[in-house]
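If your schedule permits, I should be very grateful for your opinion on a structural question. What I wish to show you is a protein chain and, alongside it, a tokenised description of its three-dimensional fold. Would you kindly read the sequence against the tokens and tell me how you understand this chain to fold? Here, with my thanks, is the record as I have it:

===
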Amino acid sequence: MSISMQDVEHVAKLARLDLTEEEKQTFTGQLNAILKYAEQLNSIDTDGVEPTSHVVPMSNVMREDEVRPSLPLDKVFLNAPDEEEGQFKVPAILE
């Protein structure tokens, strides 16, 4: 598989990028070099290798949920630009 100049132009158009001819040639060469390097993976013997999603064991690193008291409202509203009736007051965004 290889990337053509037309492929680079198509992706640039989708991304709304205005590339020069020199940039198109550069990106075409770079993308083809990446694909050529990735094709080396096809030559690796993977028979007998069990599929895995991670190469190292993963465990849940999240802490357990605990009920804790929240901050008092007077401290919470110290950082608020404006407050009204115990709620943050923000500018209206609807007309």
About this structure: Strands lie at 83-84, 87-88. Helices lie at 5-14, 21-39, 73-76. The first strand starts at residue 83 and ends at 84. The first helix runs from residue 5 to 14.
